[in-house]
Amino acid sequence: MNIVVLGSGMMGQAIAFDLCNYSCFDDITIVDQDEQALLSAKKILEGEKINFLVINVEKADDVRNLFENYDVAISAIPYRFNYELAKMAVETKTHFLDLGGNNSIVEKERNLFEQARKQDITIIPDCGLAPGLVSTITRDIVERMDSVDYVKLRVGGLPVDPKPPLDYQIVFSPNGLINEYTEDAMVLDHGQIVEKKSMTDIETIQFSEPFKEMEAFLTSGGCSTLPYTYKDKIDYLDYKTIRYPGHCEKFKILLDIGLGGEKVIRVGEQEIVPRKILIDLLMKNMPTAGRDVVLLKVLSEGLKDGKKIRLEYTLIDYYDEKNGITAMMRTTGYSISIIAQMIEDGTINQKGVFCPEEIVPPDPFFEELEKRGIQIKREMK
Question: At the N or C end, where does the chain have fewer CB atoms within 10 A?
């Protein structure tokens, strides 16, 4: 089998790196519409057996012709393209995976189930960190308990050496970050799926030093389809983003005064989009490189054989200095790469459209992560 990765940015580079080092694909290609981006990726992936190709994903015929030459395609580009890409994958009988990022796009992809099944292909959105890795952890919890009282998902990508004023580092798209902070969060509450304002319900969460006391608050997107998949199996489920203390209050002020807005406003003789200004300022004034860390904690409680048990999952993953790969790239890019490899080796063979919690087997997935030094500590209490 052969595989193509769309996008040569940070996540695309991590995916390609993992495929080269762990997969059995006969041919690995990474494509981008930006030739300079491809050249940058080529330097980082120097020595790896990868083909580099310039393709504009907005040209449907070019993408369709590309897909016809590959068995599997991975999207590491903005989520707005994923539905159209998934439709093309159905046409060309190409297995397709993406990183998700938007619930409505994922829902549209799920509506392609019958077409994908008839074409004998597998489509899996939401294959990154959150959603993605946390989705598979949630499946593991459900499979290990007879009934589940709650699942609390807590994830954050952070700089190891935080700098004021926001104590944050741009580890993925700043536009995606703003979406997480502005769109409503979904919470599963005893059979009801309710929407709550993001950047609310702040709590304190602890890890080992130097992350002894962090904050976590509601954000959108991280649980994606989980409230729907487990509506009848989990009483309560929510997702919160982890940050250094004080970040939420500071960033929320920027959004409260309208800097996350996408509608054009007039300032003097100029028409501007506030969000574009905010993104530009974030990119200019916040670090985009440096050592980072991904913190993850999943808390759950339920019944097993009539006894109350708690399962807790913890992950602390650091920047890979040897290969120049961030912790966010590792936990996101390697996760989707592993799932693609499960399609290649037959571990995943169901046909249709599925989210990770429906199709990714937890133990083999966790074992593959551990081979890459990403260790999830699971404790039963």
Answer: C
- Burial of residue 122 (CB within 10 Å: 0-12, 13-18, 19+) is buried
Per residue in 337-370, pLDDT (tens digit) is 999 999 999 999 999 999 999 999 999 999 999 9
Q: Which residues pair with 124 in a beta bridge?
A: 97
**Angle in degrees, CA 247, 205, 141, rounded to 5:** 125
Runs of H (alpha helix) within 111-246: 113-118, 133-144, 174-182, 226-229
Q: Give Cα 217 to chain centroid, integer Å.
A: 18
Q: What is the pLDDT of residues 152-180, one digit of tens each?
A: 999 999 999 999 999 999 877 788 899 99
CA angle at residue 280 from 278 to 286, to 5 degrees? Answer: 90
User: Which domains are present in the chain?
Assistant: 2-125 (3.40.50.720), 133-327 (3.30.360.10)
Q: Contact at 8 Å (CB) between 318 and 310?
A: no
Instruction: Please choose, from the candidates 136, 159, 143, 106, the residue with its C-alpha nearest in 3D space to the C-alpha of residue 336.
Output: 136
| Contact predicate 314/207, CB 8 Å | yes
Contacts of 107 (CB under 8 A, 6+ apart): none
- 141 Cα distance to chain centroid: 20
- List all residues 6 or more positions away from 63 whose beta carbon is below 8 Å from its beta carbon: 55, 57, 85, 88
Q: What's the confidence (pLDDT) of residue 171?
A: 78
